[in-house]
Design a protein that fits this description.
There is one protein chain. This protein has helices at 16-23, 41-47, 61-74, 95-103, 124-141, 157-162, 172-182, 198-203, 207-224, and strands at 3-9, 29-35, 51-55, 80-83, 109-113, 153-156, 187-191. With 225 residues, it is of the alpha/beta class. The chain has a single domain (3-224), classed as Spore Coat Polysaccharide Biosynthesis Protein SpsA, Chain A (Alpha-Beta Complex). Strand 2 (29-35), helix 2 and strand 3 (51-55) form a beta-alpha-beta unit. The radius of gyration is 16 Å and the shape is globular.
Length: 225
């Protein structure tokens, strides 16, 4: 089975090298999508052993995931596509847990959940925003999940081909749930670790950004209908 990671990255020069070195032993290939970075993210990705794709401008995480996933399917013939963040928040050793349910044939999609992990250290205000996202997702997609804006996911090839990401920015996360429901894809959640650092907290989604995500989501649905 060819397992390929897609890592969207924007100005992650300081983190991307270690992230790639951590995940490579557990994967067949690593794709980094440099989403219009102004630093050396792409160069570091290549020197660390990843395939680097480049957006000339910053288009957003959804667009980067779409670019990387299409490349993984069409150019690398991936059997499983793993979405993984570039900031070092995820634990590479948990990739095995993420892909196992797909390898066993029980599900099409595996979603990482920080709220299934004992002793999670989610900052209070981040937790409030995320819980709001869970309620929103259950309302819009009908899926009962415990975490929504978690960038750690795994897809079988069939699922990755069916899920069409059209939202360029962070509303893609809600769109993925809609696509899972629409295509009747089998899914499960797996406990994952999120390492919160000062840098990752500063880069995280604020309450104001959450309103932008909701607006983008509904505007996107309007144009698709």
């Amino acid at each position: 089975m060819k397992i390929v990671a897609v890592i969207p990255a924007y100005n992650e020069e300081r983190n991307i090298g270690k992230v790639i070195r951590d995940v490579k032993p557990r994967l067949s290939e690593v794709i980094v999508v440099d989403d219009g970075s102004s630093d050396a993210t792409g160069d570091v990705a290549v020197s660390s052993g990843a395939h680097a794709l480049t957006h000339r401008i910053n288009r957003g995480q959804g667009a980067a995931l779409r670019t990387g996933t299409e490349f993984a399917l069409r150019r690398m013939d991936a059997d499983i596509v793993v979405h993984y963040d570039a900031d070092g928040q995820h634990a590479a050793e948990e990739i095995d847990d993420m892909v196992k349910p797909i390898l066993l044939g029980g599900v099409d999609v595996v979603l990482g959940s920080r709220f299934l992990k004992p002793g999670t250290n989610v900052p209070f205000f981040r937790k409030v925003v995320l819980k709001g996202g869970i309620i929103f997702t259950r309302f819009t997609s009908g899926l009962r999940v415990t975490d929504t804006h978690n960038g750690f996911r795994a897809f079988s090839r069939a699922a990755a081909e069916k899920i069409k990401i059209s939202q360029d920015r962070m509303a893609h996360a809600s769109e993925i749930f809609d696509q899972i429901a629409k295509n009747n894809l089998r899914f499960c959640e797996v406990p994952v670790t999120i390492r919160y650092t000062k840098e990752s907290r500063q880069k995280g989604q604020s309450s104001l950004n959450s309103f932008r995500i909701v607006l983008d989501y509904f505007v996107g649905r309007l144009f698709k209908s």
